[in-house]
């Protein structure tokens, strides 16, 4: 292997792994702090609750990570999620569409929203911020036009499957497992989604192209990467992830809520930034995003156990985001 090839591989490895170290340290410190403040924090039940709360935001953050890696941003993900979930619910409840088909159509709707975002960014060369801000309002309006009430989905096993639980640990007493910690299938599915995305980003040409476009789009284009096609694929894939998040939200709550998702864009961006992905594009790690989502969930959970009002939880989360972006900015300046 040539020294030039070795240097390139080392550089790529650095981009993929280094950003996760800081978030992991922050995660461990947060766990240590909240464990010292509440005896309930380290319980299996509480940990299960944190993972369930992270389930939806984490899925949204996967799509957000793909876009931010290309130096874009998506403000519409919460509304794409909201509209996709009510489509999944109402097609089944009101129009008699079989549950699997209704879910598939909801996923298709999310993908179409993402495709439209991608085409506006690549064909009309509009800034992602403006495109997705406009799509946020469109999604908000369509969700309210389509339904104004919460739809209960308890009679559809397909819609609520990922909300079902299984028990880890415990003991068998007369053939019945007692004790242990309950996790839902959605939490396992979230981990699978992260692993699949990790594989795409680290082991495939598509992943390398995503990093290349985020690092220097013009250089990527000159090297033969079809940047417009790649960006369209990224936004479309992100839309599908947002729709999957809508399905997981239905599974977790048992309802399709048209009020959902209004702050999801901020929460997903928070998870991505705290996970070490650079807002300048081209640098970050999907595993870091998972850690960032866990940090958000742990802070919310830990502060709740400490009795901190929710409004102050938002305040602290905002400070964390500013801190993370400031670190990213300083790192970018040093690299320059």
Protein model, in words:
With about 325 residues, the protein is mainly α. It has one domain (about 20-165, about 180-330): ABC transporter involved in vitamin B12 uptake, BtuC. Helix content is about 70%, strand content about 5%. The chain is built from 14 helices and six strands. It has helices at about 5-15, 20-35, 45-70, 75-95, 100-120, 130-145, 155-160, 185-205, 205-215, 215-220, 225-255, 265-275, 285-305, 310-335, and strands at about 150, 165-170, 170-175, 175-180, 180-185, 255. The strands form three sheets. Strands 1-6 form a two-stranded antiparallel sheet. Helix 5 packs antiparallel against helix 6 (about 130-145) and helix 5 packs antiparallel against helix 11.
